[in-house]
Amino acid sequence: MTLERRVFDIRSIRRDFPILKREVHGKPLVYLDNAATSQKPVQVIAEITRYYRDTNANIHRGVHTLSQEATQQYEDVREQVRALIGGGRPEEVVYTSGTTMSLNLVARGWARHRLRAGDEVVLTEIEHHSNIVPWQQLRDEVGIVLRFIPMLADGTLDMEAARRLIGPRTRLLSVTHVSNALGTIVPVRELADLAHAQGALVCVDGAQSVPHMPVDVTELGADFLAFSGHKMLGPTGTGVLWARHEILEEMEPLFGGGDMILTVTLEESTWNEIPYRFEAGTPNIEGVIALGKAIDYLTALGMDAVRTHEVELLDYALRRLGDVPGVTLFGPPDAQRRGGVVSFDLEGVHPHDIGQVLDSHGVAVRTGHHCAQPVMAALRVPATARASFYIYNTPEEVDALAEAVSDAARFFGGPTTGAARGAAHGG
Amino acid sequence: MVGDAGGAGLDELYREIILEHYRSPRRKRHLEAPNRHADGSNPLCGDQIEVEAQVDDGRVADVGFTGQGCSISQASASLMSDYVVGKPVGDALAAVGAFQQMMTTGEAPAGVDLGDIEALLGVAKFPVRVKCASLGWKTLEQALKRGGDASEATPVTTDERSM
Question: Nearest-CA distance from A30 to chain B in Å?
Fold first, then answer.
């Protein structure tokens, strides 16, 4: 594979990311921890500086020019987000600090007031902790019942079980679109149809899908969509909860304070209209405005092209890593059925040690449980190593990854029972 | 050994004696009749350890550990177990303190000869790995300090961020 065969001009993309010129331990940085956070292009970095140099003011408050400009720039991004995910109206876009806050807003702002003891929320075994813990908190508080769709050995969901678990008591299905630990693409539409047939709503964790593939809330059958800005070239501390406007209208705010009210007397207050009632206090203004530049960047590439690029890299990575003796790959074997994430382990080498050796080669991967301990329990491993790709990664970087993993195998003595491994596949 | 990774100080972290203890851990087994016991866990790394000890007349007659973890945590527990067997409980606890001091300062502790354990000195230069090296020691400390009753204790952790 060569750079020239890519779906877009990857050399020019890489020039936009200053950090990719860095060296780590004397080696060129090979950044493969994109599922944790993405790197940022100069367009986004420069926008943060531009905002503070030219525009900085508080929003929704002043009649003065700077405040009006800041407000306009901040509000314009809602329409960009709406267009990216196919929502109906810009006011359906609520800015949050990230996916975690977005999911907590669904749990606290909607479910807390709508669900009663005995009502069921259906989740899956492959959720990130941020789509498990808020529901456990609500269970302890309200008495809702949690049901988990199990994971099969290949990292996909047990759809037979899903059909049994989604029933007349189901009020909400909250499910990840793409597993952060395994890359599994969940058949959200199929699950959403099951949930909607029971009169339940559908919440989708899009943290690992919105940055990487075309996502359309109508096609997905989502009533809520949560995602983070920092995983899609934007600044940390930015995120979105999208929900259909009639659902947002019946939700309660999480925080009270400035900007979220219409009127305040000493006795009581009335809420501002959506989405402002969910955005109390001065928000991450420069972050949201810079997120707009991140969306511009991705839209110019085209989300179809982003996805095609990642599938090519992923397909290559699955083959290259699968050829390393002692490597076990987790998750669906077919690149078309997973996001740009490769979770693996190496016989006889703990993931923490894999990560350490890879770092010495300049290769940045995540090791550990990936905030998905139930997935690790289901795989019966304590942890995995995870490489995750984005628009600026190259086949040469996949080669560097595979070579570094081979080096880790050599360093720790190599596989002792390699032939017996690989039950998952590709080992 | 490791390709061309010398610049990262990998050889300093993974000394030969550490790799040797990782590949062939000493005293990694359950004891017949332990009268001290504690569990340790660093969920973020996926490290788990169980330390058992048999204390007779104020002496550590035997120690065993079981569990899973990275090379640093396993080698450290192995080196530790070899070191404390036969020592008075007070000396074993002093060794825990000396080890922790070594991880904090990056220097061999004064007044205590930890022998091969000083091969773990390089770990101090890798702050995220200090918790790996410390897990077995903190778990031993809890086992020895707690005496015979270990039924209700929560596992020891050296990982302050477990989410």
Answer: 15
B163, A382: Cβ pair inside 8 Å? no
Write the DSSP symbol of residue A157.
B
Q: Kindly identify which residue of chain B lies nearest to residue A416, measuring between CA atoms.
A: B23
Query: A157: distance to nearest CA of chain B, Å?
Result: 24
ipTM (interface pTM): 0.83
What is the pTM for the complete model shown?
0.90
Q: How far does the CA of residue A352 sit from the closest CA of chain B (Å)?
A: 6
Mind listing the pLDDT tens digit for each residue in A53-66?
999 999 987 889 99
Tens digit of each residue's pLDDT (9 = 90 or more) over A327-383 = 999 999 999 999 999 999 999 899 999 999 999 999 999 998 888 889 888 888 888
- Given a contact cutoff of 8 angstroms between Cβ atoms, the answer to whether A185 and A338 are in contact is yes
Tell which CATH classification among 3.90.1010.10, 3.40.50.920, 3.90.1140.10, 3.40.80.10 matches the domain B4-162: 3.90.1010.10
Q: What is the tens place of the pLDDT at every residue in A76-101?
A: 999 999 999 999 999 999 999 999 99
CA nearest to B70, candidates A345, A170, A362: A345
3-state SS class at B67: strand
Burial code (b: 16+ CB inside 10 Å, e: under 16) for B79-95 equals bbbbbbbeeebeebbeb
Q: Which two tokens stand for residue B115?
A: 């022998």
Using a CB-CB cut-off of 8 Å, the residues of chain B touching A383 are 45-46
Q: Are A159 and A190 in contact (CB under 8 A)?
A: yes
Interface of B with A (CB under 8 A): 1-3, 5, 7-8, 10, 13-14, 19, 22-23, 43-48, 68-72, 74, 126, 129, 132, 163
Cα–Cα distances (Å) from A88 to A99, A215, A245, A283, A413, in that order, read 20, 14, 8, 23, 57
Of A361, A382, A412, the CB nearest to B5: A361
The CA-atom distances, in angstroms, between A7 and each of A15, A185, A309, B90 are 17, 22, 6, 67
Rg for chain A, CA atoms, rounded: 22
Of A350, A361, A381, the CB nearest to B70: A350
Q: Which residue of A has its CA nearest to B132?
A: A352
pLDDT at B64 over 80: yes
State the DSSP code for A226.
E
Q: Which of B45, B129, B157 has the most A C-beta neighbours within 10 Å, making it the best mutation to test the interface with A?
A: B45
Q: Where are the domains of chain B?
A: 4-162
